[in-house]
Structure prediction request, 206 residues.
Amino acid sequence: MRQAEAPGLGHAVLCAEKLVGEGPFAVILADDLLYSPTPVMKQLVNVFNHYHSSVVGVEAIARENSASYGVVDGREWEEDIFKLSGIVEKPAPEVAPSNLGVVGRYVLMPTIFNHLRALKPGAGGELQLTDALQSLLTEEQVLGVSLYGHAFRLRQQARLSQGHGGVRTSPPGGEGRVRGLFANASAGCVGGGGMKRRRNGAEVLL
Prediction:
């Protein structure tokens, strides 16, 4: 299946509705490469299987970078799991509801399609999955999961851009192996951003 045009992530997900059917499904954004000893999708699926509600991968970000992320609001429910009360696409730092940014990994209930079909253009004039999640929050629970791993951000011209923070604990050589996969193909591999949990030193501000 191809998206004939690109009016936003919400539109891209909606294009898959007939293929998905009536079951839960995952969304994986290709411009966020995530390395972890425990695959990040397994981390999300484990939470989904326990709570049976939509889950969104999140990480602590620098507030000055909030305009590049969807940013969530809510409260910590248990360690590394947040019950969301709001989510906004690319807010200015001064109005961002927290410093928890959405990583490009989701496990969603099929009810999201009801909200995607009702979308109107949001940030950037695009149909935003973030806005559909905000609408979904008015009807059912959505959780944010602080992921364990290391993030590599792909940006324009196939460059890996440097993230906001330090590197999280990973197996010896793990980061180098991932980085090496792109060293020859990518002009200017300059680093990745760590996805940090609070107990590993990143402060979460809700």
In short: Residues 36 and 149 are 4 Å apart (CA to CA). The beta strands are 25-28, 32-35, 54-60, 70-78, 81-89, 100-108, 142-146, 149-154, 160-161, 193-195. The first helix runs from residue 9 to 15. Residues 155-172, 184-192, 197-202 have pLDDT under 50 and may be disordered.
